[in-house]
Amino acid sequence: MEKKAQDSRKGAPHRAVPPAVGLLFSMALMNTLLYFCLDWFFISCPRSAPSSAHCPHGHFRMGQMKNCSPWLSCEELRTEVRQLKRVGEGAVKRVFLSEWKERKVALSRLTSLEMKDDFLHGLRMLKTLQSKHVVTLLGYCEEDNTILTEYHPLGSLSNLEETLNLSKYHSVNTWQHRLQLAMNYVAIIHYLHHSPLGTLVMCDSSDLPKTLSQYLLTSNFSIVVNDLDALPLVNHSSRTFVKCGHRELHGDFVAPEQLWPYGEDMPFDDDLMPSYDEKIDIWKIPDVSSFLLGHVEGSDMVRFHLFDIHKACKSQTPAERPTAREILDTYEKVLNLLRETVMSQTREML
To answer: From start to end of 66-171, where are the E strands?
Structure first.
C-alpha cells in the first residue's frame, strides 16, 4: 500500500500556469510601473541649475562650478577673457561670445558713448538684482565699458519655437513645460515689481519681438531676464510714475495708457504725455504667455482655464488689473488642476 501511494505521488502531474494568466500578470505589473512613473513625472518639479543666488553679493557661480568666485576685475577681463565672435547687437551694447577658463561666456561692449548712461544703468541693475530671475553677472569694467555675463546657448525667447522644433527637445515641447515657462516669465515680472530697489517697470517692451529679446532661455528650460537697460522706478507713495521713452507708441501690444490720448489732430508732445505705472507690464502678460504656450496638444485647454485672469489683465483701467502675484497664483492652480486631471485619466485607463 505504501509503495502504491509513493508511486501515485510521483506520477501526479505538476499544474502549469496557463499562458493567459501569466500574460495578465505581466500586464498588471507593467501598468503598475507605468502608473508610478507617470505619477513621478507629473508631480516632480524640474531641477534647477546652481545659481549665484547662493553666493555672497559680488560673487558668482555658474555651470559646474562648486565654489563662488568674486566678480572679475578690469585686469582679469582684459587678460583672461578671449573674445570669439559677435552674437548680438542692440542700441546700447554689442554682445560677443567669449571664453573664460574654457567656459563660454557673453561679453557686452558699449556701442557708443551717447548710450553710456543706459549702459551704466543696466550694469547697476545687474549688480543689484542678482537672483535666479536675472542672468548671472561674472564681472565688469566701467573703464572699458564692458560687462561679462553667463552665456546661454539657446539664446533669447525669440528662438523658442525654433529650439523646441529640434528633435532632441521634443520631450519638453509639452503644455506642462510651456506653462512652466509662462510661470517663469510672470515670476520675473513679480520680482521686478517687488525688487530690492522698489517697483521696476520693464520698459523695453513696445512689441512682442522686442519683449522676447529681453529674456534668455536657459539649458534647463527656465527663463532669466537679460536686458535691464530700461527699468525705471515707480513710487506710488511719492506719486512718481514713468514714461517708456520719449516717442509716440502705437499698436495694441502696449497698454492703452501708453498711447497718445489726445487724438490724431493734436501732434504728439512728450511733455504732455501722461505717465503710468507697473500695470503696463500686466497688460502684456497674456500676449507673452500665449506665445510661450504655443500650439501643442493641451495648450488650448490651458488658455481656456486662463481666460478669466487674462481678461482681467486687459482691463482698460490699470488699477483693476491683477498683480503679477495673483496671476502667478492662478497659473499654479491651473497647472495643478490639469496635472491632476491627466493623472485621473491615466488611473482610469490603468
So the answer is: 69-70, 81-89, 93-100, 103-110, 137-141, 146-150
